[in-house]
TrEMBL record:
Residues 363-401 have a biased composition (Pro residues). CDD domains: PASTA_pknB. Residues 308-431 are annotated as: Disordered. Residues 243-308 form the PASTA domain. Residues 1-23 form the signal peptide. InterPro entries: DUF6777, PASTA_dom. This is PASTA domain-containing protein. The keyword Signal applies. Keywords: Signal. The lineage of its organism: Bacteria, Bacillati, Actinomycetota, Actinomycetes, Kitasatosporales. Pfam families: DUF6777 (PF20568), PASTA (PF03793). Residues 326-362, 416-431 have a biased composition (Low complexity). It comes from Streptomyces davaonensis (strain DSM 101723 / JCM 4913 / KCC S-0913 / 768).
Length: 431
């Protein structure tokens, strides 16, 4: 019996696991190698709209990257990796009206807004194998599909560092929305698995939390050279800097995640974080590794630990506004304010007893009873002695109904001390 029961339980477990696998199938992602023409492009790739480069994918701290991460993208001294002017002329040509309409819909803009949109894009080279939602042009429509772009592919990114267009074919790009942990990459149609491909180095780009004025790139031909490229320019206004120069980690403990990310990015340092998802901009930074003062090269990562704000405390008006609930580190929040955290519960406990104080008017009503309802003095006495629990205030309406009727014109409160019968019940209610 025992063995048969064990077998049945094991069988149920196997079926449950297989059901989970069927419920969450792997997402098929098409590999797109550098230099390989698209089978269904928006733009004729033989016209030289863009040029890919040979770049080995770089190691990365976490698969989720913000678009303004220093060193996320690369550049070169060649200013024409993507001819934005040629793409604009093609899309605004009346002969390509239907293709332009499909292109604009994929990017959620209007056809009239295409020139202005293109003017805000910046050509860069991918330094990591990057997941995107790609689009083919089939039957006069933009057909979306998930794809993995190889490092070295030239793309146009928007003002928040998000890949928007694949340069060589003009295909529009959107953010990858699938589960990065459950993908199956297909290498086909000439896109053979490239040398150096590593599933662990695949990244997904999320828009920067702010509008970016310039992108800090790495020269893919001379990695010791950094490139500052203003957003919306094609390389003609680039300025170089020494990527080997060491930069001091700023003190970001106590700042919000959004503030800390901006400070680190402005220093040329990349932001890493503990946990699977991207923290909210309002999360409080409780620690950094390396700590403040450490000196790192351009693009090196600083890992932040954060504490997300407690929704309950944020709705409280009596407590301090910065009471985070630690999600990844408990040491920093405890050192940031132990006295305030120990004091706030007592103060909130005091305010929580405020409702009974609002019941004092019934205890102050006995003065009228000293004038008229002297014969009813015994009933009010048990009423006032049971006053401490707030629930008793709802019990005495039958006994307290008489005093309010006699107090149509209440006497001045100054008479209260002179009435000894009411003084004793009042002090017992307070205690």
């Amino acid at each position: 019996m025992t063995r048969g029961l064990f077998v049945r339980v094991l069988l149920v477990g196997v079926l449950a696991l297989s059901a989970c696998d069927r419920a969450a199938p792997l997402l098929t992602v098409k590999a797109v190698a550098a230099g390989v023409p698209s089978l269904a492009p928006f733009f004729d790739e033989s016209s030289g709209l863009g040029r890919d480069a040979q770049v080995r994918s770089q190691g990365v701290h976490g698969g989720l990257q913000q678009g303004d991460t220093p060193g996320l993208y690369g550049g070169s001294k060649q200013p024409t990796i993507c001819d934005v002017g040629k793409l604009e002329r093609f899309l605004t040509d009346p002969a390509n009206e239907r293709k332009a309409a499909a292109w604009a819909r994929a990017l959620e803009i209007t056809t009239e807004g295409i020139p202005a949109y293109l003017d805000g894009l910046t050509p860069v080279l991918l330094r990591h194998d990057t997941l995107v939602k790609n689009h083919d042009y089939k039957k006069e429509k933009a057909v979306p599909f998930d794809s993995l772009l190889q490092a070295g592919i030239a793309v146009l990114v928007d003002a928040q560092g998000q890949p928007a267009v694949k340069c060589s074919c003009g295909n529009p790009l959107r953010p990858f929305e699938g589960d990065t942990s459950r993908i199956s990459v297909e290498f086909e149609d000439g896109n053979e698995k490239w040398k150096g491909y590593d599933r662990a180095s695949v990244v997904t780009v999320r828009p920067a939390s702010r509008k970016v004025e310039r992108l800090a790139l790495v020269d893919v031909e001379e990695p010791a050279r950094g490139i500052n490229r203003p957003v919306g320019t094609g390389g003609e206004d680039d300025t170089g800097f020494d990527a080997r120069e060491r930069r001091a980690v700023p003190d970001v403990v106590g700042a919000t995640f959004g503030q800390a990310a901006s400070r680190l990015t402005d220093r040329g340092l990349a932001v890493g974080y503990a946990g699977e998802g991207l923290p909210s901009d309002g999360a409080v930074v409780t620690g950094s590794n390396p700590a403040a003062g450490a000196r790192l090269a351009f693009g090196e990562y600083v890992t932040l630990t954060v504490a997300e704000p407690d929704p309950e405390s944020s709705r409280s008006t009596s407590g301090p506004p910065d009471l985070p609930v630690p999600s990844s580190s408990a040491a920093a929040p405890s050192s940031s304010g132990p006295s305030s955290s120990s004091g706030s519960p007592s103060s909130s406990g005091t305010t929580s007893e405020a409702p009974p104080s609002s019941q004092k008017p019934p205890s102050s009503t006995p003065p009228p009873s000293t004038k008229a309802p002297s014969t009813t003095a015994p009933p009010p006495t048990p009423t006032t002695t049971s006053a401490p629990p707030p629930s008793t205030t709802s019990a005495p309406p039958p006994t307290t109904a008489a005093p309010p009727t006699t107090s149509s014109e209440p006497p001045p409160p100054s008479v209260t001390p002179s009435t000894t019968p009411s003084a004793t019940p009042t002090t017992s209610a307070t205690t």
